[in-house]
Every structure is written in C-alpha cells, then in structure tokens.
Amino acid sequence: MIAPREEFKSWQSGVAGNGSGNGSGNGSSYGAVRSSEAKLVKKTDDSLGGDLLEVAMGPHHPSTHGVFRMDVVLDGETVVKLKPVFGYLHRNHEKIGETNSYLAAIPYTDRLDYICSMTNNWAYVHTVEKLTGLQPPERAEYIRVIVAELTRLVNHTCLIGFLVQDMGALGTPLMYAFRERENIIDLFESLSGSRMMFNYMRFGGLRCDLPPGWIEQAKRVVANYSRFLDDYEALLSGNEILLARSQGVGVLKKDLAISAGVTGPMLRASGVNYDLRKVDQYGIYNRFQFRIPLGEHGDVFDRYMIRVLEMREAVKILDQALAQIPEGPINDPKAKLRGLRPKPGEVYGRIESPKGELGFYLITDGSPNPYRFRIRPPSLINLTILEDMCLGQSVADAVIILGSVDIVLGEVDR
Amino acid sequence: MTKLDQIFVSTKHWLVGLAPEMLQSLASILLSIIPIMAVFGGCFAVTTILERKGLGRIQNRFGPNRVGPFGFLQPMADGIKMLTKEDIVPFQSDKVMHFLAPIVLTVPIWLAFSVLPFGRNMVAVDFNAGILFFFAAGAASELAVFMAGWASQNKYSLMGAMRAMAQMISYEVPLVLSAIPVIMIAGSLSLPQIVEAQAGYGAGWFPQWHVFTPWGLAGFGLFLVAATAESNRSPFDLPEGESELIAGFLTEYSGFKYALFFLGEYLGLFAISGLAVTLFLGGWHAPLPILEWLPSWFWFFVKFASLIAAFIWVRGTMPRLRMDQLLNLSWKFLVPLAVLNLFVTAVWHFSSNWQSFGGLAARWLMCGGLLAAAYVLLGRSLSRGQGTPRKYTYAE
Amino acid sequence: MLGSGLIKGLAQTAKNFFGSYHDPARMVTVEYPEQKRVVPEASRTIPFLVYDGEDPELGLRCTACKICEVECPTQCIYIVKNTSKKPDHVGKMQFHPATFDIDISVCMGCGICAEVCPFDSIKMDQVFELSTADRFESLLLHKQQLAKPNSYFGKIHPTEAGEIDIRREQDKRKAEAKAKADAEAKARAAAEVQNAAANSAAPPPSPQTVTPA
Amino acid sequence: MPSEIAFFTFAGLTLISAIAAMTMRNLVYCGLCSAAAFAGIAAIYLQLSAEFVGFAQFLVYVGAIAILIVFTVLLTRGTDIKPTVAIVSRGWIAGVVIAGLVFASISVPVFMSATLWRTAPPEVAAPVEMIGLELMTRYILPLEAIGLLLTVALIGAVVIAMREKPAESIEPEVTDLEENSTPAPRFDVSSLEVKS
Fold this sequence. Notes:
The complex is a heterotetramer of chains A (about 425), B (about 400), C (about 210) and D (about 200).
Chain A: H1 6-13, H2 30-34, E1 53-57, E2 69-75, E3 78-85, H3 93-99, H4 106-110, H5 117-132, H6 138-166, H7 172-192, E4 201-202, E5 205-206, H8 214-236, H9 240-246, H10 254-259, H11 265-269, H12 276-279, E6 292-294, H13 300-324, E7 345-353, E8 356-364, E9 372-376, H14 378-383, H15 386-390, H16 395-405, H17 409-413
Antiparallel strand pairs in A: 1-2, 2-3, 4-5, 7-8, 8-9
Helix pairs in contact in A: 5-6, 6-7, 6-13, 6-16, 7-8, 8-13
Chain B: H1 2-5, H2 7-18, H3 24-58, H4 74-84, H5 95-112, H6 130-151, H7 155-186, H8 191-197, E1 201-202, E2 206-207, H9 214-230, H10 242-245, H11 255-280, H12 296-317, H13 323-350, H14 357-383, E3 393-395
Chain D: H1 2-23, H2 27-47, H3 51-75, H4 91-112, H5 127-137, H6 140-161, H7 172-180
C-alpha cells in the first residue's frame, strides 16, 4: 500500500477555504509546487491572480473511472500540473500468473480489463500459442475474430457513454450503451456461461463450440447495431455542446503519441496508422475487408469519432466473419488441457485490444508455470501521457481527457 | 364555469368571513400563504418522482417503481431518509454560515411565489413592481450559494460556489433583459397586468400571447436558457457538476440541509417557470376561445407542467458546458441578442398600426429577419468553426 | 450547427422516451425479485458435485483424485481422501472424498474444475442467489451442500448431462458385458479344470485402470 | 404604532449590520453583514411604500454589489489576511472628525430645507410609471450621464482584466511554464515508494 503522503496531511489540517486566482496563469514556479509542504503555492509574478490550488482528485472521485487519483495543481480552474497516481487496485496479477499453471492464468486475464475479457483471453492464449506452436483450427479462428470484434463494439460504446457522462450528460448515452451491451453479453453468456468473466479461449482452440442458433442471433445483434450506431450518432455527433467541449481539447501530437508508446484508438486519433490487426495480421484478420480510420487533430473529439468509425468497421468485419464461418473442430488435436510444460524460452505476444496493444511477455523455464509473466496494458501506457494533454486546460477538460483515454483500472493496476 | 374558475378565491373569502373581525386580515394572509406553500411543496414532491421516472424512460429504464403504487410514494421515502440522516457538519467549517445557507436559499424563493398570478384574481400580492420583486427575491439565492460553498471549507465546495456566483451574475443580465420587452409592450411591471395584456384572440381564435410574436419568441427562448442557468439545471449545472466537482457547493451537505437545498433549487425552477408562463405564454389564459370554459388556474398549471417537462427533457439529453463556454454564451450571445431584442420590440411597438396583410408581413419579416440574422451571426462567431463536419481518412 | 444538433438529440431522446412504452426491446431491465431471467444452458456460477441414485454419499461420482484441487486457479477446493473404497458406476472400487469443501467466497466461477474432472463429477451450478449474512460459515460449502443429484444436473445442463448419461450407460453396459464374459470364461475354464469348489468369483477390477470414454 | 415598531426594527437591524460590517475581522462576514445592512435599507424603503426603490435597492445592492464584494474577497484571498492593527487606533480620531464633518454638511441643508416641515403628500397612485416618466423627461440628462459613466467604468474594467496577449493557441501557458522551470519528471517514482 502507499503510505499516507504529505498532501493528505496538509489536506486534513489545511483550510480549504482559501481562494484561488482567476487571473492569467503564466509564470508559476514549478519548484515550489513540488514541495509537498505547501498546499497553496505562491505565484511569483502575477499581480492580479491568487495562489495555486492543489486538489487531489480521487481515488474516490466520481469521474476517475475507478480508484485512480489525479493530483492536480490548479490556477483558478486551469490545470498547471497533474500527477496521475495509480496502484490502488493492484491485485498482484503478474505474480499470480507466475505461481499458477498456464491454464489457471486464463481466468485471471478476464479480470484485467473487465469490459473486454474476450480480447484479454485471446492475447494470452495467442502468446502461449506462439510459444508452443499450437495452431487453432479455422472455425476457432473465426469465432475468435467474432467475439473480439463484438468486444470492440461493447468497449467503444461503453467508452463513449462514459465519456459523455463525464461531460455531464446524466447517463443517457451510457444507458443506451448498456442497453446494447446487454444484447452482446447475452450472446457471450450463452456461449461461455458467464456474462463478464468468460474464460472462453484455450491454447490451440476454444473451451466449447457455439451453441445452436448462436450465429443467427449474432447476425441479428450485429444488424441492429448499425441502426443503433446511427441513433447514437444522431444523439451525440452533432451536439453543439459535445463539439464545444471536445474539439481542440486534450490535443495529443503525433510525435508525442509515438514517443510515449501510445497505442490503439488514441494513437490513430492522432493520425498514426498503426493497428496490429493490419500490422501483425494475427489470427485471420488478413481475410477480412476493413479499413483503419485515422484522425487528424488528436483531440477528444477525434478520439470519440475514431471509436465510432471503428465500430462501423467492426460491424463490417462481423458481417463477413459471420457469413464465412466454416464448420469443423474447434481445438488443435495436439492441444491438451492440463500439464502444459513449454520448453525454456521467452515470447512476447500482442493483439489489438479495443484499448490498444495488449501484450503478454512470458519467460518459461520448463516448469508447469511461467518464470516471468508480464503484461503490457494499453490503459496504463496510454495514461502516462495524461499530464501532457491536460496542462493548460481547465479541470473540467482534464476529466473528459481522462475519459477519452479509455482506462480500466483493473488493467492499469493489474 | 365562473364558479369553478373562482372556486379558490371564493373559498378563501368564505373562510376569511368566518374569522372574527380582528383576525380577518391575518386570516387572509395565512390563506394566501398556506395554499401556495402546500401546492408548490406538493409540486416539488411530484416533480422529483416524475423527473426520475421521466429520465428513466428517456434512458429506457423503469425509474423508481418500488415504493407504493408505481413508485409514487418514493418522495415520502426520500423525505424520511433525508430527515433521519445524520446531519454532518465538517469539523473545519463555519458552523453558523453552514447552517444559515439553506435557509437563506429557501426563504426568498418562497417569497417569489407571492407575486405570480396562478389564475384569474389569484395572486397573493399585486405589487406595482411585481416583476422587480420577483428578481430581487431571486437575487438572494446567490448569497446563499456563496455561503454554502465558503462555509464548507472544502475545495470542491469553494470552486462550486465561485462557479455558481459567476454563473448567476452572468445569467441574471440576459434573464432580466429578456423580460424587459414584455414590460415595454405591456406597459406595466405588475404581473397580473402583464397577463391582462395577453388577453383576447386575434382574428377570433389566435391567442395574443407574447410568445407568438418575433420578439416574444426570441425573448422566450432567451428567458428559458437564462432560467435554466439561473436554476442550475442541466446543461448549466456546473456549480454542482458531479463529474468535476463531486457535488459542488453541496458536497459537504447531508440530511435535512441537503433536502432544503434540493427544495430550494426546485422551487427556484418552479418560480421561474411560473414567471415564463406569465410573461410569455399568456399566463392563465386559455389557448383557444372554445377552451375558455376550463378554469384559469388549470391553464396556468398545464403550461407550467409542460415547461417543467421540457426542462426534464433537456436535462435527459444534453451534456454540460464548460465554465468559460458558459460565460461566453451569456456575454457574447445571450446579452447581445437580448439587447437587440429590445430594439426589435421597439420596432414592433411602433409599427403596431401596420395592420394590413402586407403591413403585417413586412412587420414580421423585418423583426424576425433581424433576430434570425443576429442569431446566425452571433452563433457562428460563438462556435468559431466548431461543428463543421470533419473528414476522416482511412488506411487500408 | 446553431442548435440543430441539440434539436436532433432532443428528438432522439423523445423517440426513446415514447419507445420505452411500446417497444419491449428497448427495456432490457429485468425486475428482479418478481421476474427472473431464464439463464442459458451454458450459464455457470459455482461448482457442485453430481451423485447418481438416491443416496448422496453412496452415489457421489467424485473419486477424490484431487485434479480439480490442483488446477483450481484460486485454490478454493479442499479435499481429504477417504481410506475406504466403494464401487463406482462400472463396479470398480474407487476412493471417495471424506471431506470436499469449496470456499465460494474465493471461488471465481471459472469452471476449470468442471473442465478437468475426468469423472464428470464436479459441474457448474446455476444458482445465483448466494448472498448470506454470514461471511465465514455459510460461504464455505461442504460435501453435503455441494452434492446434488444427477437429475438436477440434467435439468440445468440438459445437453451435456444427456451426453454424459449416455456415455456412462454405455460404459456400464460394456463393463457388465465384460464382467459377464469374464464370468462365463471363468466358468468355462473352471468347468474345464473341474475345480469349481476353489474359485467362485472373478477377481475385483483394479482401481487404477479407469478409462473414461 | 406597528409601523414605528417595524421602522425601529429595520433601522436597528441596518445599524447593527453596518457596525458589524465595519468591525468584524473576517472579510467574508463583513461582506455578508453589509448585505444585511443593504437589505435593511431596502426594507425601510418598502415601509415608505417606495416599492420600486426598495426592490431596486435589494436587487442591485444585495443581488449584485454584495455578491461582487464577497467575490472580490474570495478572489483576492482576503479571508486569510490576519489584521495586525487593532480596530481602535489613532487613525480613528481623524476618521471620526471626517465623518462628523460629512454628517454635518449633509444634515445642515436637510434641516434647513422646507421639505422637512411639509406634511407627507398622499400616496402616489402609480409610482413606477411616474419614476419612468420623470427619468425620461426631466432627468434625462443625469440619466444619460450616469449611463455614460457606467459604460466607461465597464470598459475600463474589461481593459484592466484583459490578458496581455490573446490566448489563441491552446497551450501558451504550458510553454511558458516549461521555459521558466526545469522540466520535472513526468512520473515521480519517489511518490510510490513504500514508507514504513
């Protein structure tokens, strides 16, 4: 656990009723801000303005998407410094992976990013397959693509709901998102038995085959989804308030995005053409016709729009996959459920999860459990850039910029 | 018909007559105050449950449906919960101000109801300067919000209070400015006389409400926007914007004090909706002559309820603005438009003798065109290129 | 532009408002205590133990092989092997658990135990009203609470249970036929040797040679 | 008689609030007390059946000026300043003298004027309309002059409050900050260290 820090002490003893300046925010001294003794920091050369206000937003703030904390220093309402603090949800995931068998790590991956359990499963089994050379049969590959793209729909819809919720929309888009998510998790439940923690994929295949009638139901859901997207866009995309709140806010420049290792829709919103479904062509993504939407400005609105457009592409992939899916076995005949002991070695496997590049890095030593189990969570890496996007924006913007990063604390803290 | 229309007035007179001579004036006062408090207190309870159910339906949920038939006893459950909750006063807070703030908020808002005409002859006090009284009473709520935010000694509360004050000061200007054209046309500051000025039907069926004129329509729109901001409703609920400031100036309030704030906000909404009905929607007049057999107070409450429904609808749809955008909207859009509306009203007033068909059309075109042009130009400059469709490229 | 987007949004919410009254597809809420969802067949919550016949103790399929205990990711299963043996459905003598506990406050319902069980003994239940006021005792399920009849299993997972039942029936028939054949062969051999008094029964099958189909 | 009781209540309230506004050490309290004093004055106007003036007094003074006072106190962080000088000091003598002179110079003409000895006129029927007419006819010049003055004050305030350079670019302040200070590491590892 993190020991109580100086800020907390000053928070408890200090008087919050000190005003804060509304004037221009130039020339704050960074060094003074860093001293944790002073909560209110004197500005050096501003005749009009007051002092800086240090606010710890989180870990139980309503819009930090879980137990995340932003230590922000505010000049009036302008953010002059922001420090993301995470680790409140640390669950020792990597260490558990190192003490458990390879199979027993799969249900834990469900709990990484609990909105996209299917892609988490896939990333992990993809890594182990790379290690062991197991090859899932064609039907299994199709099913994987279908569930992964359905997961993408779920994730992006919910993210947009949360984002607009952060803008203050009283939950209406979020409720619509959850309504549609319900249809998809019903599909997943009839497939895997659980509504969120699917534990569905296995090394070299899948746990169970599709139940009868699943494909037809999935086709219905997907057909409804494009209609829903039209409605969702009618509600949001033209909304003047949403445009005003999101355009030009939280701009992430292309170079910075690349050098910070940002991936996923955030990177593509900054205009970088990088999608592992095209770059690695893992699974059978090379069989489908789809395009990668790219943003130009890299602001919150672009991140929103990229997700909408990605959902439309995902619907296209789903249409193709659901039409083409063949009959056949769903497991590699070489695969066995228990007692996997890969040869010593190391491997890094990655897929394009809805949030970005989700990678697993395993070092094996020939024993039934990995020697090193490491996860590259897209949420965490994308979050490291938060301060650069928030500086100079208002505190209300910081909240929606955090929303547009799309984090799930289960994945950030692991 | 007249009996039904005047049922409340005659009941009051009958009851006052029952009282002894000495106490008659006191009885008259009490019988004006108590019904207002009862009716609008009841409106508060009903609105909370209807709002939650309506928002639920907008969001494709059921809304509260567990307490009583269809959940309609939910306000009682909420009230019991609020009253029995622990009243937490922060250790560092200014205890006196923390206690006074909800009272200072609620009392003046009750006062504001005293000048609203709820029906024919149904107004508690007919002040000469009634509309001014209304705004003066509303002005006190800003102090209460400041007191709440400052006394809580919480950073979020303080920021919420600062936002609230900046917002209320800024939006009081367009609020008053958009009401002035009505005063100009009606020639009176008294609310019953303003309602009287909207009596009658043009061509025998067309109601002469102010909203059916170009300046009235513009004024009504401006008034509604400013009223939304004044009553801290979404999309202008920044002072308590829960995604940024937890609950703004309400962060450190719980139990009964919180309930008082809640009550105060809803009463403020009711009062300002009542004023909007009075100023622009013809007050208690029926929309068509053939509907005049329904009592006047019925029409007032129908219009009132539809305005409240509109507020709920907007709340269920829109995200919230940012602080600077909020102030920009007020000073760069609403205030100039409201000032122009004053001018347009003057034009309308002085062209009132253009009663031929062509004259009417010219009058409408001139006034409406001026306002529409200003709307488009100011809106363009406010949005500054935002809202133009963006092009997204695709990589194969 | 100029408020048209807001109007569009208002139209959208109005559509949803009125739609919620006539379009059941929009209202996905299940009013829980009165209505309950029909869970799909694959649905799983916590594990339970299947027993055949009437007596949970006698018919328990579990042979205390401890595979599930080893494979359980959260290690929430605790098994103690009994020293005595009893015959299973094909008549082989098997160990059985003296203690079989599952701590469902730790169990995450992943279903790996059910997947790895070679005896079709541990399966996933579909009960979901599991909350109790007692954190410790009520959430630690013992063998008596875990054991549920095969008919219940057939009710919640009909497809899977049907397959297993058929397979077990085949195994049983095969075993019976084999036993019969063995007995006949023995009898024939005995008749040939004409030493009927010494040997009267076939040797018991060894417990190590269980082979699921 | 009741009207006198009301008058003395309001007058006492006004005076007590005004004194409190002068003597309290907490600037926010002072601001709120002055608001109470304004409200008391408004009540006295209303008692004189000067509805318009009373409401205007309340709207302008309580609704705007008092708010601006507390707003300013907040913005300048006046609540924190601990006064070092005692309230009763030598500066008082000068203050009392000046106040006395001002009071005398106002009261002498008031007592000399004939209005004081005139009986109260009967209530005016429509005071608001009359005020309007008077303002637009007889007092048009003072009204225009005041309007001009206020406009000038408004523009002046805007000019003072305006930023030196227009903040067109999105992150001008950030660049300033970066230049003026050594760039801090974005992620402070030390903050995550376990403290015993």
